[in-house]
Amino acid sequence: MNRWIRAFPEALYKRTLNAVFPPRCAICDDCVTPDRRGICAACGGQLRILRGPSCLRCGRTLPRAEAEEEYCADCAGQNHAYDRCFSLFAYRDIAKSIYRFKYMGRQEYAAFYAEAFVRRYRRELKSLCTDALLPVPLSRKRRGERGYNQAELFACEIAKRTGIPVRTDVLARIRDTKPQKCLDYYERHNNLKNAFIIKKNDVSLKSVAIVDDIYTTGSTADALASLLKRNGVRSVHVFTVATGADTPGRIKRERAGIS
Ligand SMILES: [Zn+2]
Ligand SMILES: [Zn+2]
């Protein structure tokens, strides 16, 4: 069989698939022909990836006045259990995209996020020597309702591009917690207490990355990092698609009515 005939069914399959499920831009979700990155030209021209001076702990962009500082005001005032967080976008810039990825079944966006993440952090990914990617687990109930874990999809796409294995047999969420977005800073910490366990006692990993869709206050990352470190993991980094604009400091001030 010549190569043309062998390639024909695959080409036909792709055409049919594209006709039934036309490719969509991972940012605006329009049915367009996305570019190599998986987004349309209009979004490609506008989308901003986080760059420039950033906090060495949470990775948020530092305000111009604090550009010389190592840590943002929030991280300078508290001890995070994780070592460093790497995020790709400011949440406000891609909030709708993340919403569709998380709640509306747009699982294919994970490939675009991971491709952009690996390009942005190529150097860091090489130097971190990460043994495994650990997606933040969902409870069995929530995973059943949603049908997939968005953090796991993102982790699997990073794995394809870096060769770092995804491990879903290490962490488990045993308590169904309220969605973090409904809670304030203090409630988040209590909400996560004892929500996670280590499934495997023989964890021989030394350096891991927790993978999630959004970094907000760092409470989830801290809960998991302290659990992992208590079980012998030396360094815990955090990889997320987006980082929230609200800092714990701002939330605290709003709560106190200062804002
Ligand atoms: Zn678009
Ligand atoms: Zn920070």
Named at the architecture level, the CATH assignment of the largest domain is 3-Layer(aba) Sandwich
Tell me roughly what share of residues is in helical segments. 40-55%
Count the E strands.
6
Assign the CATH topology of the largest domain: Rossmann fold
The string of secondary-structure elements, in order, is: HHHEHHHEHHEHEEHEH
Brief overview:
The chain is α/β, with parallel strands linked by helices. It has helices spanning 3-20, 41-46, 73-76, 91-103, 109-120, 122-128, 140-146, 150-162, 185-192, 219-230, 248-255, and strands at 84-90, 132-135, 171-173, 196-198, 207-215, 235-243. Residues 246-259 have low confidence and may be disordered.
Can you give keywords for this protein?
single chain; alpha/beta; Rossmann fold; 2 domains; four-stranded parallel beta sheet; 42% helix; binds zinc ion
Describe, in plain words, how this protein is organized in 3D:
The chain is built from 11 helices and 6 strands. The chain has a 4-stranded parallel sheet. A two-stranded antiparallel ribbon has the order 3-4. The protein is an alpha/beta fold. Helix content is 42%, strand content 14%. The protein has helices spanning 3-20, 41-46, 73-76, 91-103, 109-120, 122-128, 140-146, 150-162, 185-192, 219-230, 248-255; strands at residues 84-90, 132-135, 171-173, 196-198, 207-215, 235-243. The longest helix is centred in the first third of the chain and has 18 residues, at 3-20. It folds into 2 domains: 1-47, no CATH class; 49-255, Rossmann fold (3-Layer(aba) Sandwich), CATH 3.40.50. Mean pLDDT is 85; it is low at 246-259. Helix 5 crosses helix 8. The protein starts with a helix and ends with a helix. The protein is globular, with a radius of gyration of 20 Å. One zinc ion (ZN) binds at residues 55, 57-58, 60, 71-72, 74-75.
